[in-house]
């Protein structure tokens, strides 16, 4: 279903923004059953890929500043999904690891659920190509922002 957004019809940034909001609405019921928000779920997936990452490495991977990331990690720790510990070599560094509950949440694979794929109304090939293009777009924009 396509809707007209008037003055935003030709704005790529608005199309990306509104698609992100729509994704969040579709994800919400899938993640509610896990007790997670989408950013929290992404953090858990990042740790499932490489456990014991530093807060700084997680921030780099998720494109989040520490003032956003640290409260998120504290909430996940309070909910039993992660643990935090000081690095043995450098106590200024905090490492984050998944608990059994966090590993179980990562195993849910909500982001590739049949409900989500069906909700897009797009073929798997088109979704793969779109993801590749958006990844390239994001990388180019981040590089441009660093130069400017």
What does this protein look like?
The protein has 148 residues and is mostly helical. It has 2 domains: 10-109, Winged helix-like DNA-binding domain superfamily/Winged helix DNA-binding domain (Arc Repressor Mutant, subunit A); 113-148. Helices cover 63% and strands 8% of the residues. It is built from 7 helices and 3 strands. The longest helix has 24 residues, at 124-147. The mean pLDDT is 90.
- Which structural class best describes the helix and strand composition? mainly alpha
CATH fold field value of the largest domain: Arc Repressor Mutant, subunit A
Give the termini separation: 38 Å
Radius of gyration: 17 Å
The tally of beta strands, per DSSP, is: 3
CATH architecture of the largest domain, by name, is Orthogonal Bundle
Unreliable sequence segments: none
Helix content: 55-70%
Bin the strand percentage. 5-15%
Largest sheet: 3 strands, antiparallel
Give the class-level CATH name of the largest domain.
Answer: Mainly Alpha
CATH superfamily of the largest domain: Winged helix-like DNA-binding domain superfamily/Winged helix DNA-binding domain
* Multimer state: single chain
The averaged pLDDT comes out at: 90
GO molecular function, one term: DNA binding
GO cellular component, one term: cytoplasm
Pfam families: Staph_reg_Sar_Rot
Protein name: MarR family transcriptional regulator
């Amino acid at each position: 279903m396509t809707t007209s957004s008037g003055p935003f019809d030709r704005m790529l940034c608005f199309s990306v923004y509104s698609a992100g909001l729509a994704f969040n609405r579709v994800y919400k019921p899938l993640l509610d059953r896990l007790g997670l928000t989408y950013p929290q779920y992404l953090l858990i997936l990042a740790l499932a890929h490489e456990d014991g990452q530093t807060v700084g490495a997680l921030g780099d991977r998720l494109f989040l500043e520490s003032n956003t990331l640290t409260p998120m990690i504290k909430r996940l720790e309070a909910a039993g999904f992660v643990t935090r510990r000081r690095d043995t070599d450098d106590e200024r560094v905090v490492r984050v690891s998944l608990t059994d509950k966090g590993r179980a949440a990562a195993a849910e694979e909500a982001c590739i659920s049949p409900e989500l794929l069906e909700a897009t109304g797009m073929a798997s090939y088109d979704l793969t190509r779109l993801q590749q293009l958006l990844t390239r777009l994001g990388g180019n924009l981040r590089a441009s922002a660093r130069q400017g």
